[in-house]
Amino acid sequence: MKYVSYQAKTQLFQLHTKHTQRAFYCDPAKRLIQLYYGARGMSEEALLLCESRQAYSSFSPVPELEGGLENSPDNLAQLFPGFDCGDYRLSGAIIRDASGAAATDFRYRSHNIYPGCVVPEGLPGANRGKNTETLEITLSDQTRPVECVLYFTVFPESDTITEFTVIRNCGTEAVQIERITSAVLDLPGDEWDQLSLSGTYAEEFQLRRQALHHGLQIQRSLRGSTGHQANPATALLTRDATETQGAVYGAALLYSGNFSVEIECSQYHATRLALGIADTDFRWLLNPGESLSAPETAFTFSGNGIGGMSRNFHNFFRHSVMPEAWEKRPRPLLCNSWEAMRFDFDRDRLLKLADAAAAQGVELLVLDDGWFGERNEADSSLGDWFVNTKKVGSLATLSDELAQRGLGFGLWFEPEMISRKSRLFEEHPEWVLGVPGHDLCIGRNQLVLDMTRSEVVDYLFGCMSRLIQEARLTYIKWDMNRNLTEAYSRALPPIRQSEVRHRYLLGVYALHTRLLKSFPELLIEGCSGGGGRFDGGMLHYCAQLWCSDNTDAEARLAIQFGESTFYPPCAAGSHVASNYPGKTHSFAMRRAVAAFGTFGYEMKLDELTPEEQKAAMAYNLDYRHTHGKLVQTGDFYRLTAGDGSGNPVAWLQVSPDRKLARLTAVMRKNFAGSIKLRLQGLSETLTYRVGDKNISGAKLLRNPFAITFDGAVGGEAKIVDFTAEG
Ligand code: DGJ
Question: Structure pTM?
Answer without folding.
Answer: 0.98
